[in-house]
Amino acid sequence: MAVIDDGFAYLYPKAAQAFSKKASTITRLPPMEASTALYAALDEEQAHTIYLTPLLSSEIPTILSRNESTRVAYMGTATLRPRPRLYTAIFSSMDAADLAARYLATHHDNNEKPEGTRTAALFAGSEADRLAKRFTEIYRQAGGLGDLIVRTTSDTYSQTLADELKSFDIVAGYLASSPSETEQWLSQAFDPYAHIVVEYALPDSGGATMAHRAVAWNVEATIASLHEKLTTHLEGEIPGIWKITEYEGKRGVK
Asked: How far apart are CA 70 and CA 180, in angstroms?
């Protein structure tokens, strides 16, 4: 069975459909008293394998302790210690930066004209320096040409940094920041014509954005990878799978 937290169901409306390919029963938890609803569903279904979504990581120890046979397959970002019968797929911003670097190095037309290319990468948050280093390494390894401008900040939005990036006349770039600040960075740091890719785990398919593409969770592929691990009884952690998605027909300043 698959148990889907209300927040994940809201952000990813196709969640039930995605899990239905591997789970015979789908339960969406209510926003209130979710824990009570969770254990009521587990008692009713008596499932041998349980898929859990991001906000349910804290329930894993209790679920595993209820018997000696239940297996848990978790997908999300929580750091979990290895346990018997636990299978996890963990999404990392490092993997997202890796994918974005390869994409920008190999897909953008301006890379054919290095003298006219200015690609930027902006990382905001506690992991900014590590992500910037990884992005730079992969971008060059993948054959990225032209000037690469990389900026980091461990703090929140900075107008000074945004103005600096805007002055470079960037043609392509990558942005990894808090989702609540993404559109502000996009509108203030980059020109509308710049081909910008953003890290956004679960993009809003109906919202306007100045980004051209997002590096997003590939939920279906990650569920399939977890299912393969369950089939082969290989407990432990695997990386969550990211994908490049296009904001087709929804670009615009908010």
From this structure: 38
3-class secondary-structure state, position 232: coil
- φ, ψ dihedrals at 213, nearest 5°: -145, 160
Q: In the prediction, which pLDDT does 115 show?
A: 53
- Please report where in the chains the tokens 């014509």 appear, as a residue: 193
Q: Are strands 242-246 and 213-217 parallel, antiparallel or unpaired?
A: antiparallel
CB 179 within 8 A of CB 199: no
In tens, the pLDDT along 35-51 reads 999 999 999 999 999 99
Helical spans, DSSP H, in the chain: 6-11, 15-19, 34-45, 60-65, 93-107, 128-141, 159-166, 179-189, 219-231
Q: Residue 246 pairs with which residues in a beta bridge?
A: 213
What per-residue confidence (pLDDT) applies to 143?
Answer: 93
Q: What is the pTM of this model?
A: 0.91
Name, in order, each residue with C-beta under 8 angstroms of 172's C-beta and a sequence gap of 6 or more. 104, 108, 110, 117, 119, 120, 194, 195, 196
Residue 68 has pLDDT above 70, yes or no: yes
